[in-house]
Design a protein that fits this description.
The chain is about 45% helix and about 15% strand. With about 950 residues, the protein is of the alpha/beta class. It has an eight-stranded parallel beta barrel. Strands 17-24-23-22-21-20-19-18 form an eight-stranded parallel sheet. It has a four-stranded mixed sheet with strand order 1-3-2-4. Strand 12 (about 255-260), helix 7 and strand 13 form a beta-alpha-beta unit. It starts with a helix and ends with a helix.
Length: about 950
């Protein structure tokens, strides 16, 4: 192995090639393990060429056992394998990942009902567990046993509390005795970690200053904590160079874990790291390992890191501040080949997966496998599930328990006693991903059987972990409504119907996280491929063996498919995903009850009873979410024009049932957990239930208003660009329509359709209509534009209707019906696989001139996706306005499209008086009466504003029409 990689791994120099006689902390620990395991007389031999500083090979020569390694770290891991009986004689074994780390959080104070995360002060009163050496020894032994080799100590500004800083007197509130106690404990920790081959990386959050003397530095404050600094002054730079120099001097075997963002301004990152952090590291002469977390990182700075400091790793959060999938964020690719190595930060679980006993070996193994597939990922930092309130869980063991740490009176559960399997599973697969599936099942069944003293419990509980593993990630993955890292997924916070509809729109949306720096996404999450276990269960349950799309279809998009009468088989659908989540929760409850029944000793019974209550929480939370998702689908269908009379009652029931189920969840969790997670102090019975009840009130009010007005009638503009004096581009048209409140646009003919779609999508608008021509003349060589076949795939999943103008014969001549029916069926059949409908467009002097012509032909075409359009301007030119109601009634369910415009009366139009097509606030035609007629005949679709031929600035007349439309809509509902 190259010297550079050796340095990057943070190993001490003696690990390169050590003779048997040269004792090291790691070799001594290896001997302790061998002696404790009854493996006397095992020889530790130094060899070269094993390919990794932690690699080992166990060689058996008769009765002799020799552990060969290139470093004491290899002896340590070889000793573990020998004692466990896992070593395969003669085979070189080495880790899949160089850095295998977890996090201890040594910052923050209890402040009211939450943790003040950026409070910097550190002492024995605030973190007593850190100073309990028996507990810390147990913890470090557990990390070593799981083959973790890195400990990340997360803090905001710890230096004044662990260093003597004579040049800056008074920067800490600690007494001299407390400071000495802190220093002694940090030295002890560093030594104990070295003994177990665990490197220590001290985190500090850029840039915080000591609260006690922050004002002396004259720095502009940032937004996170009283001492946060966004733009460092020379005084701040001098202070930090001095502090870091003292740190590297005092603790020579440790490194740094640094987060540039949230406080430090992007424009100052390059100079700050170059002139302060990297300069201090170089000046130490020890080349310490530095890990830099990508969080609001300046891209210019990132591109120069490699040249500024060599022994440096990058780090990025796995799924941002969420754990939704074993598949990591695509942003990790931006770090490929940039620095010595790259680390994945599994940051989300402390919030997402709490407070329950989450630790699916199957899902954890798949996650590590996904990291391994990237090849450039050299390690991982695994946040524990209780890191902010460490070392205890959130389990409520007495009725009056609440809050955190010193607030909690009475007995508490240690996280190590309850959930060590979480770290053990990650450690196992960070060491080796490729393992036999059946052997792994047996391993974890035996692991759990040993813990709970029963093979039956082991089998049932392993199944419980597998079944419940996908539930929390699956719920967040489905809706993607989470904001920040502030609550547990099973609390269902922010799972309001409107948030569900707006968080995800299309399955192929480009995630916002790919277009902005990490940390500057407003923490909007996006869905990832589901885990393999869940995906295989879905395919089996719904008999879709050929399904390959592992993203679930968003609720909004799925509702559009249902509204269009299309069955979705090419992707997972939200209703089915919810059903499967409920299945897994129910099966998990059965497994937990089986495990509880099989336990024989009292302690196991007590803990397994909590597995049962966790399962009941999964059942209730999955059921509550299912009601919300089904309500959201129904609301979207109503907004898409679905019959409110058919859907409203189901919508109301699902909303009411969501609250009823959540009330049960709130009562259960009030008995089982003091908080939903260990940071924000939220609880189901307080914040969660209040939010669910509020959403019920909001949605009931919406439903009442919606039913009262009958339909939303999305209002859009068509032909607004034909005579626009400003000659706006398509992008400018889209922005103008968005500003004025239109829902989208219609498009003339088949040119520039892709550009129209792209510009409307960018503005959050819809393409409602595309107008196409059809020639039914017998001698027409090209009845319709062949470009149609290229355009149709662009329209899949969109609400776009093709509005067909039909020429090629005398107006209303039924002799052309047969040819027209043949061609329209052909077009309808082409469009149907893409979910596109055809509306026959009556146009003055065309063969298809009147609404009655369109109805007649549509009836003969008899295709479910072929119908009729009503155009006010052409109707008034060819028919009597008193017949509007009867003609629209005849169209019935085939009425797919409507266009209106300001107009004189029908008699005036036919007499050539007044403006045939005008803004909506002009003309004597009874527009409110038309809208009431549309309401009466049950039309629910979009309404287009016909603007053809209206000259001048389009923005001016469109603004007038929108104002008139709003008044007309109000009048139509009165």
């Amino acid at each position: 192995m190259q010297r550079r990689t050796m340095i990057a791994l943070g190993m001490v120099a003696c690990m390169v090639s050590t003779g048997v006689g040269q004792a090291t902390p790691q070799s001594e620990y290896a001997r302790v393990l061998l002696d404790a395991g009854g493996q006397k007389g095992v020889e530790l031999k130094a060899v070269e060429g094993l390919g990794h500083p932690e690699a080992f090979r166990v060689v058996r020569k008769g009765e002799r056992v020799v552990i060969e390694a290139g470093s004491p770290a290899g002896w340590l891991y070889g000793a573990q394998a020998t004692v466990r009986g896992e070593a395969q004689a003669g085979q070189v074994e080495k880790p899949a990942f160089d850095i295998r780390g977890t996090t201890l959080w040594i910052a923050g104070a209890v402040s009211g009902g939450r943790i003040a995360a950026y409070d910097a002060q550190f002492n024995a009163e605030r973190f007593p567990w850190f100073f309990e050496r028996a507990f810390m020894t147990r913890y470090l032994d557990a990390l070593a046993d799981a083959r973790f080799n890195t400990l990340f100590l997360w803090a905001s500004h710890p230096f004044p509390d662990i260093l003597e800083l004579p040049e800056y007197p008074g920067v800490t509130d600690l007494t001299a005795e407390q400071l000495k106690q802190n220093q002694d404990q940090f030295h002890w920790l560093a030594q104990q970690c070295q003994r177990r081959n665990i490197r220590v990386l001290l985190h500090f959050y850029n840039i915080h200053l000591p609260n006690k003397r922050a004002s002396r530095f004259k720095a502009q404050r940032g937004g996170f904590g009283a001492s946060a600094v966004s733009r460092p002054t020379p005084e701040v730079a001098r202070y930090y160079k001095y502090v870091l120099g003292r740190y590297f001097e005092e603790f020579p075997g440790v490194g740094l874990y640094i987060c540039p963002g949230e406080t430090l301004a992007s424009s100052h990152q390059l100079e700050w790291f170059r002139d302060v952090i990297f300069a201090a590291a170089k000046a130490s002469g020890k080349n310490p390992l530095l890990v830099i977390r990508d969080w609001t990182m300046n891209n210019d700075f990132r591109s120069q890191i490699r040249e500024l400091y060599e022994n440096c790793y990058s780090e990025l959060k796995h799924n941002d501040e969420s754990f939704t999938s074993p598949v990591p964020d695509r942003r990790h690719e931006s770090w490929r080949g940039v620095l010595t190595g790259h680390i994945v930060n599994l940051h989300g679980p402390p919030m997402d997966l709490q407070p329950m006993r989450w630790a699916s070996p199957v899902l954890i193994r798949e996650t590590a496998g996904q990291w391994r597939k990237l090849r450039f990922v050299k390690g991982a930092e695994i946040f524990a599930l209780s890191c902010f309130d460490w070392p205890h869980t959130q389990d409520k063991l007495a009725p009056d328990q609440f809050g955190y740490r010193e607030q909690v009176k009475g007995p508490k559960l240690l996280w190590l006693d309850r959930s060590q399997i979480y770290l053990d599973a990650f450690g196992r697969y960070l060491w080796k991903v490729d393992r036999d599936e059946q052997a792994e099942r047996e391993h974890w069944e035996e692991y759990l059987a040993e813990k709970f003293h029963s093979p039956q419990v082991g089998k049932a509980l392993y199944q419980w972990y597998v079944l419940t593993g996908p539930i929390s990630p699956g719920m967040q993955n489905l809706t993607a409504v989470k904001f920040g890292n502030f609550w547990a997924t099973v609390m269902l916070q922010n799972q309001g119907v409107d948030l569900i509809l707006n968080a995800r729109k299309r399955i192929d949306d480009v995630p916002i996280t790919l277009t902005r720096e990490a940390g500057r996404t407003r923490q909007i999450y996006y869905s990832q491929p589901v885990d393999s276990y869940f995906f295989e269960r879905y395919k089996a349950k719904y008999r879709l063996p050929g399904l390959t799309q592992r993203l679930s279809m968003p609720v909004t998009q799925y509702a559009g498919e249902v509204s269009a009468g299309r069955e979705v088989t090419e992707a997972m659908t939200p209703d089915r995903v919810c059903d499967l989540l409920c299945d897994l929760a129910t099966e998990g409850l059965e497994a937990a009850r089986e495990a509880h029944a099989a336990a024989s000793d009292r302690a196991s019974k007590e803990e397994l009873a909590r597995f049962v209550s966790d399962s009941e929480m999964y059942v209730l939370s999955a059921e509550a979410l299912r009601h919300k998702v089904r309500a959201a689908i129904l609301k979207a269908r109503m907004l898409n024009g679905g019959n409110a009379a058919d859907l409203a009652e189901s919508f109301r029931k699902h909303m009411e049932q969501s609250v009823a189920v959540y009330e049960k969840l709130a009562e259960l969790t009030d008995r089982t957990y003091r908080n939903a997670n260990d940071l924000m102090g939220r609880h189901w019975k307080r914040e969660g239930l209040r939010e669910f009840r509020k959403d019920l009130t909001v949605q009931k009010a919406w439903l009442a208003a919606f039913v009262a007005k009958g339909s939303d009638w999305p209002f859009f503009a068509l032909c607004m660009d034909t005579h626009d004096a400003k000659r706006r581009t398509l992008a400018q048209q889209a922005e103008m329509l968005k500003d004025l409140g239109y829902s989208g646009a219609g498009h003339l003919w088949l040119g520039k359709v892709a550009e129209r779609i792209e510009t409307l999508d960018a503005a959050g608008l819809k393409l409602w209509h595309i107008y196409v021509r059809l020639n039914v003349a017998p001698d027409a060589k090209q009845p319709y534009d062949p470009k149609l076949k290229e355009i149709l795939p662009l329209l899949k999943g969109r609400p776009t209707t093709l509005c067909v103008l039909v020429s090629g014969g005398k107006p209303s001549d039924q002799a052309g019906d047969a040819r027209a029916v043949e061609l329209i069926r052909e077009m309808a059949d082409l469009a149907r696989p893409f979910g596109v409908k055809l509306a026959l467009y009556p146009h003055v002097r065309d063969w298809l001139e009147k609404v009655s012509d369109a109805v007649r032909v549509a009836d003969k075409v008899d295709r479910p996706n072929a119908g009729v359009m009503f155009n006010l301007c052409h109707f008034l030119k060819t028919d009597n306005e008193k017949d509007i109601r009867s003609e629209l009634t005849k169209a019935g369910s085939r009425l797919l499209a409507v266009s209106i415009n300001g107009s004189p009366t029908g008699a005036e139009v036919r007499a050539g008086k007044g403006k045939w097509i005008a803004p909506l606030d002009e003309g004597a035609f009874d527009m409110a009466g038309l809208l009431k007629t549309l309401q009466a005949v049950g039309y629910k679709g979009p309404v287009g504003l016909q603007c053809y031929g209206i000259r001048g600035d389009a923005r001016e007349h469109l603004a007038r029409s929108m104002a008139a439309w709003r008044k007309l809509r109000q009048a139509a509902t009165e």
